[in-house]
Amino acid sequence: MRYDKFLTFAFLLFLGVMCVGTLWNVAAKLVKVHDRSDAASTDTLSVLVAGKGLMPANQLSLGERLDAVIAEAEEQFAKNAAARDLYTECFGGLQRLLGRQSVESEQPGMTIVRLTNGQYSFVELGGHSSHSADEVARLRDVCEQHGARFIYFNRPGKVMRGTMPRGLRDVINDASDTLVAELLDAGVETVDLRQSMPVAGDEYARMFYVTDNHWRLETALAMAKVVAQAIGADTSVYETGGWGSEVVPRPFYGSLALRAGAAYFPSADVMTIPLPPDDGARFKVSAYSYKMPTVVRQGGFFEAMFDTTFLYGKGKYVNRYAGCLGGDHPLISIDRLGSGGKRVLLFGDSFSLSFGIYLALSLSHLDIVDLRSYRENDLEQRIARGDYDCVICLYPNDVDGTQFTFFR
């Protein structure tokens, strides 16, 4: 409690300093503008004004000057990582001190909620599109036309049924139930992975990071084995002995802590990486992005699958989960070099990063497409020429329509 009180005091002091600093900057700049009010001066201060661009300050009203100066102060604050982290930290401590069960996220329609099983989660207020099942059925038809089996895997989210705080409805699992029923009615082969999760609330909670919405890597490995069995892939690697693990030496504060403040949570997460036995297998990972050239890593399991820049990077809010395959990309391809096995196309989101590295152990080739950023209109052609044995979706149970646009 003393720590929370200290953070509250620091938060209020920080806000006071920021307010004084902002007012000082405003006053100083207004004086500067006043001193240079001569329109003929060649040294007249210029101010960036929304809707007008860069304008001489002596041509602006007092209100426009104030707006421009405050906007500049906010921009400088946003660029100051240390100040931003301190603000977030103090904000989280204050919310915890007040006993808040939920914290509003800056993302529209999303709230960070403390669940009754002791976990924390983003909660989306939406549900699935009424056209989602039709789109999936159409994708199934295209896959079958090109000789590929199609399976939809309903991915378990962090909100276990019955764990929402009083007064909040569990629209997440309700929407998932509806979509799964619609897919089965449409004849789509569907596997509800929620049935593979523990039934006890505390056990379920341990399957996820506390400060992040993602599965722990141990959970991703368990789900990869379930999926590999369902698609008929070689699961021997999951059943052999000799598995090891590596603990990432730096604490992990995930996307929830980044928005609500680390002090809102009981502790940082510890990321442990399950490592398969070293059987000499080598992998090639190609990650394509529209903003940079293709990233290629090649080598053993750890060397190819993980980007150590994220895993070991300094800083409290480094996204260590992005160490899996280097984070989100429109298209990621994983080859198990010199090995036979199935070729699979996976439609997924960020959960597919940790899941994909372990599913790839049972395959010869895996393509991961993230429709949140994939811009090409070539999915039918990709399926036709990809010679895939199976095409799968690994989509969340807090679904919406944005990731079901397979064919534009």
Tell me about this structure.
With 408 residues, the chain is of the alpha/beta class. The chain folds into 2 domains: 2-98, no CATH class; 127-404, no CATH class. It is 37% helix and 18% strand. The protein contains 13 helices and 15 strands. The strands form 4 sheets. An 8-stranded mixed beta sheet has the order 7-6-15-13-14-12-10-11, sandwiched between helices. Strand 6, helix 5 (171-185) and strand 7 (190-192) form a beta-alpha-beta unit. Helix 7 (217-230) packs across helix 12 (351-359). It is globular, with a radius of gyration of 25 Å. The relative contact order is 0.12. Mean pLDDT is 82; it is low at 29-49.
